[in-house]
Structure formats: structure tokens, C-alpha cells
Automatic annotation (TrEMBL), chains A, B:
The keyword Metal-binding applies. InterPro entries: MoaB/Mog-like_dom_sf, MoaB/Mog_dom, MoeA-like, MoeA_C_domain_IV, MoeA_C_domain_IV_sf, MoeA_linker/N, MoeA_linker/N_sf. Its EC number is 2.10.1.1. Belongs to the MoeA family. The lineage of its organism: Bacteria, Bacillati, Actinomycetota, Actinomycetes, Micrococcales. This is Molybdopterin molybdenumtransferase. Residues 197-333 form the MoaB/Mog domain.
């Protein structure tokens, strides 16, 4: 048993969550290198971050088109009280339109190009008759007046060619990929998905599905973090469970860490004895420190034989909070992916207390009425309570208590 | 050109969004059949829905354990003013603990089993000395008094064996999978991921990457919906673009629809002429109707040669709104996956108007202060505005106008 220094518990020396996020971001900055980009077809780029600004190569819409099914007219042809016009040949979909002769109305479907000379569209349901007629000399339609521009979508009214369509660092979700497609761009340059080697540590940890001897617990950290990382777009390499033998952990990291951009371990980072991760990293440039956060205070950060390393604490809720507070936002900031959590304001459904010198992260259920109900207590082992939560609830440093109805920031999980 | 009946435009006959969602849910109910479940390892079950209730086979935590690094004591050994105790052998991690002798204190790490006889833990930083000592006859530690139960996590305090851990229909995200792992369950029975055949229609639509002749537009619906469906856990089969020839569309659906659980088309469903999807479905049990919603009013629903079919409108924003309002929630309700959108209250950053007899869905950007800024106007072709949005803003039927600061329901994208 080693004698340990509980310095991390002293509030004066704990690092703020913002400082630790900055340190994690700095550690991972090489993931943003120019050698780490790739050109992907749009269908493979979902969930990635955009490397460079995209300028619109065409305008959207590319040409003035109709917003309704109806008749394209010259607005000056129709006086205030309406008039009869001869029905011209319909505007074909997907083709350039002919010039609209004066005194005629051309049937036009939504999205079709406004003919030369036409400047307004009258919807079919305001026409008489209110259904389309075969074109011909005899066919006439009575239409009300329409101001110039009515139901016309102007070319470039969504975005004009040459304007910035998406900024570097944008997360590519359905709408952003849809915009690239609308602009005619079939491929996009994105950052590579980082590969993470994930290792759970502890003599007390057993794989799910095996027998559970007295004093042991099933490994939930591995499953929890693998899923959270996969959702966030990381490629996860699972190295299984390492015992409390530091040499075994070092051997495992060496044998399986090749190709990993980042190593994440769980457990073995606090001030107790038997801290396997601390021991395995003893000769590496790794710092073990305490972040002013509850749960998830004890953290390790550095490199293991050159590979960026993060040591998360051993309790599942602490693991998830560490991921959400540090790794996920660092990746969002550097690579544009995953999408940053959107902070939402909610009202507390009941009072809470919080350690004044720490940033507390509670779990809760956000209800449709905008109130949040806390699930479980402060304790970081409450997996069932976590599984019943849909938000993380933030109580910033400096706040010791909040009452029912007080506003808090929540992040949707 | 066919003569069409614009009945869908008449508000009295439009279907409510709730009725159409119910119809879509009914259409897709067979996806919930017992033949459509599968047993997956936890690492493959992310994003799926749980078929049956899960009862906890073990308690969590499985045994009383320490919440802190410190000393396990018999609380009755320590009077109010504190006392010296002999340091016993440390409690080993991951093993059953021996009985704690009266008058001794056993070093114990977070998560280790509370020894028989012990009923409280004193954290190391409240001990004197405040670091661990080698055990032995000579070693003594001064400890303050602690009430019974202090820093002890009671067995079953998170969940007791036999209690319901997760309900049927639960979406399996990281926390839910983590809970199953914590309970020792290595596999889980989930609903199969539905396969969707996705077809964009229209003579005017061109694949991104090709030349853009006059009057044509690039297909963004295919990319947009494929990404949205993939995010929602569907398996997407892309059938490319069909022209406005109904026979071509029928041939394509027959040749590529094998194995699809659902066919989704875009375009060709409204009251205009040249409505290819309406024409292709003429002899099929498919209804074309108008939902009281803006955008996305025209909708098709039924079966094509026995396969469930949904016809979305042709504009990209209408497509996404149709997906979010009908297909996504129907799947969430039936299969527990994808996760249902969580409604959030937000305050409008500016006024809006809405057709009083329709449910309007606007796009917007939710800001950290809880206000939402609308992006683009009501028009359904504004792809760039959609790409700048992070929420859908709901203005229910019956509301014609809202002012700055009014509360609206938003769904995060």
C-alpha cells in the first residue's frame, strides 16, 4: 500500500472544470491536423465535422420558380376585379420555360420555372374553374389580380451563389448534408473519426454474463462509455478489463493501443491505495489531479508512450459525467463533431444542495412543462437512476443550494 | 394532364396531425411483431428499443460498500469526541471482507465491501494522520465519530433484485445499456431495425455532382431523409431518383422494394398535374390527403403491393417535417426507437403568424437564454435556413399569431 497525498481534496488546489476542459482540448488538438481529414460521399459523412468553409457554387433556388400549383401570369394583365385569360401551354417540370405571351396564363406546378415575362402565380384553388383544363384556343380561366412577386420564389432567395453556405467546424447532420446536396456537392471533406482504446480497470470488476463472486461487481463502465463514444462518432476499441496489476495494464495498453488516437481508462485514479492507473503511469508524463466537480473529481491526463491519455474515475456516473464535461465538448470544439450539447433552461422540481466549491452535475428528468425532476442523489454509483434520466443538471461552483422553481441549466442526453 | 380535385385544400376536410400520426402508427404496427425481435450483445444494441420489461437479477450495489477512501469502523467504537483505533488489515478490493474486530479500523477503498460488524466509513482526509499507514500492532489512527451508515452504500440502494430495471419499449442509450451491464446481462432482446426504401421523384431532380440544366434542381431530399432515417436507426435502401413516369416508378419499387419494410417517396403527392406518385399508386390501396399542417400538408399513405407506403411532399423542409411529425414518432411509439423528441419550452425572439386552421412547424435556433430565433420564413424550400436551425418550432392549430416572448414548444434536432 502506498502512502498517498490527498491534496486533490483541498478546494484551493482543485482545477476548475473550464481549466480541465481547456487542458483536454489542448491534449487532443493534434486530432485536428491536416493529415487527419478525408473526402467522403455525403451518405458517409453523417455525424462528422466540416473541415473548411463551403461557399455556394449555385444559387438556391437556382431559378425563379412557383411556390404553388396554379397559373403563371403577367400581373399587369389582371385588373383589380380579376379577368379571363387564355390558357397557355403548361410549364413543363424540369425544363426551361418558354416566354409567357401577354394575355395568357400558363398552368404551372410547384417548383417549376417561372416563364419569361410572368411575374406572379395564382393558386389553382383561386382560379375558376379550380382545376386544370386542357390547353387550347377555347380554354379560358378566370383569375383574380395578384401583386408582382406573388407565390414566386426568387432565384437565390435561400442562398446566392458565392455566399458562405456552411462554416468550417459545422456538425454535419441531416439538414447540413441536405444543403450540400441541394448545392450539387456530392462529397465533403471532414475530420477523421478518432479511434479510442477503452479500458476498464479493477480487481473487483467482472464481465457481464459471468458469475459474480462476493465483493465483485459487473463492469458497466465499458458498456456505458462505449455506447456514449459510439453515439459521439468515435471508433471504440474495447480492451476489456484490466486487473489492479499495473504491469498488466501497461502490457495491455502497449499491445492494443497501436492505432488508437486516445486511451481512456476508468478507475484507479483517486487518492486511495491500489490505484492501478496512477501506478501504471508512474514514469509517463501524466498528471493526476482533482477537478472541482462532483461527481468525477479525480482525473488523469497526459500521454502514455506518446498516445494521448485520459483517466476517468471508476464509478459509472462519474465516467459519463467526465465524458460529457471534458471529452465530448473538446471533440466538438476541435472537430465540429459530435454536435455540442445545447444548454436548455429548466426549473427545478424540488430543492437541492451542492458543494459550494464544486461544479455539481446531477441527473434528472426534464418534463414537458419545463421542470426537471432529479433522479437519484448525488452519489455516483446510481446506474438505475442514471438510466431513468434524460438530462444532466448543472449546479455551478459558488452555489450551495437551490429551491423549487429555481432555474438551472440542463443538457439533454 | 389530369383534372384534379383540390379537396385537400379545404380546411374542413384536412386531417389533423394527431389523426395522421395515428394512421401512420397503425400502418407500421406489424413492425412490432414477435417475429421481428432479435437478441443482441449490448455493444450492438445501441439505439434499439427494448421488447420486454427487464427485472433486476441482482441488487445494485450487490453488497454494502464504501462511498469513500477511508476507514471502516464500528460506529459505537468512537465516542463523540473521537478516539484512537488500532489499524486492522485493509479490506481487499474485489473480495469478500473479513469481520471487523471491535476497537479496530480497517482501511477501505471506494467500492470495497463493508466488513461484517462495520457500519460506517470515515474518509481518509478526516483521519489523523490523513494518509494510509501500514497495518500492524503499533499502527493507530485518530478518527472522529460517525453516525451508523455514514458513507456506506447499502446493498440494493440503487435497485433491488426483482425490481423492474427497464420497461418494455425503453430506448437503449448509453445509460440504459450501462444499467443492463451493471446487472450482469450481456445480451438484450430488441426490435429489428426496419428497412426503408427511399425514392426521390421528379423530372426536375438531378443527382448532386452532375451538370444542372435550366429548370432542374439538385436532389436534396434523398440525402436529407437518408441521414435523418439513419440517425433514427433505420436501414435505408436508396433507390435513386425516379422520373415523372408512373410506370418507371412502379418498376423501380417492384425491383428494389423486396426486403423493404416500408417505402417512402418524396414528391408527386399534391393536387397538381403530373403527380407521379399518385398516378403510380392509382390501383393500390393508397390514400392521398391533406394534413392540416404547414409545411408538409399533402401526404400519401397506404400499401404498394402489400408493403407499407408513405408519400411525402417534394420540398425538403416538408420532407423533414413529415418525417419528424409522423414517421419518427410512430417508430418511437411502436418500437421504442428512435428516442422520442423531448418537447422543450422556449420564448419567441420575434413575432410570427400562422394559418389558424393548420399546425405550423417553423425552423429556428434555440439560444442558451431560452429564446428561439426563427430561421427563414414559412416557405418549405429554404434548405439553407434549415441547415442553420437546431429546433423545430410548433405553432398549434387554432393559433394565428404569437408575439415576442410568447412561449412555444420546440423540438431539438
Amino acid at each position: 500500500m502506498t502512502s498517498t497525498n490527498p491534496h486533490g481534496h483541498q478546494k484551493g488546489r482543485a482545477r476548475s472544470t473550464a481549466s480541465h476542459l481547456a487542458a483536454v482540448t489542448e491534449l487532443l488538438r493534434p486530432l485536428r491536423g491536416s493529415a487527419r481529414t478525408e473526402l467522403l460521399p455525403l451518405s458517409s459523412a453523417l455525424g462528422r465535422g466540416l473541415v473548411e468553409d463551403v461557399t455556394a457554387p449555385v444559387s438556391l433556388p437556382p431559378f425563379a420558380n412557383s411556390q404553388m400549383d396554379g397559373y403563371a401570369i403577367r400581373s399587369s394583365d389582371v385588373p383589380d376585379g380579376g379577368t379571363d385569360l387564355r390558357v397557355a401551354a403548361p410549364v413543363p417540370a424540369g425544363a426551361g420555360a418558354a416566354t409567357l405571351e401577354a394575355g395568357t396564363a400558363a398552368p404551372i406546378m410547384t417548383g417549376a420555372m417561372i416563364p419569361e415575362g410572368a411575374d406572379a402565380v395564382v393558386p389553382i384553388e383561386r382560379a375558376s374553374p379550380d382545376h386544370f383544363l386542357p390547353a387550347g384556343d377555347a380554354a379560358r380561366v378566370k383569375l383574380p389580380a395578384a401583386a408582382p412577386g406573388t407565390y414566386v420564389r426568387v432565384a437565390g432567395s435561400d442562398i446566392a451563389a458565392g455566399e458562405q453556405a456552411l462554416a468550417a467546424g459545422t456538425f454535419l447532420g441531416p439538414a447540413q448534408l441536405g444543403l450540400l446536396a441541394a448545392l450539387g456537392l456530392p462529397e465533403v471533406t471532414v475530420y477523421q473519426a478518432p479511434a479510442v482504446l477503452l479500458v476498464t480497470t479493477g480487481d473487483e470488476v467482472v464481465e457481464p454474463g459471468r458469475d459474480l463472486p462476493a465483493g465483485k461487481i459487473y463492469d458497466s463502465n465499458g458498456t456505458l462509455l462505449e455506447a456514449a463514444m459510439t453515439q459521439a462518432g468515435l471508433r471504440v476499441l474495447r480492451a476489456g478489463i484490466s486487473t489492479d496489476n499495473p504491469e498488466e495494464l501497461r502490457t495491455l495498453l502497449r499491445s492494443q493501443g497501436a492505432g488508437a488516437d486516445l486511451i481512456v481508462t476508468t478507475g484507479g485514479v483517486s487518492q486511495g491505495a491500489y490505484e492501478v492507473v496512477r501506478q501504471a503511469m508512474a514514469d509517463q508524463p501524466v498528471e493526476f489531479l482533482h477537478v472541482a466537480m462532483q461527481p468525477g473529481g479525480p482525473q488523469g491526463i497526459g500521454t502514455f508512450e506518446g498516445t494521448p491519455f485520459l483517466g476517468f474515475p471508476g464509478n459509472p456516473v462519474s465516467c459519463l459525467v467526465s465524458f460529457e464535461m471534458f471529452l465530448r465538448p473538446a471533440l466538438s470544439q476541435l472537430l465540429g463533431a459530435p454536435a455540442a450539447r445545447l444548454p436548455v433552461r429548466a426549473r427545478l422540481g424540488h430543492p437541492l444542495t451542492s458543494p459550494e466549491h464544486k461544479h455539481q452535475v446531477r441527473r434528472g428528468r426534464l418534463r414537458p412543462d419545463g421542470t426537471v425532476q432529479l433522479e437519484g442523489g448525488e452519489s455516483s454509483h446510481l446506474m438505475h437512476a442514471l438510466a431513468g434520466s434524460n438530462v444532466l443538471v448543472h449546479v455551478p461552483e459558488g452555489v450551495a443550494a437551490l429551491g423549487t422553481g429555481d432555474e438551472v441549466e440542463v443538457w439533454m442526453l
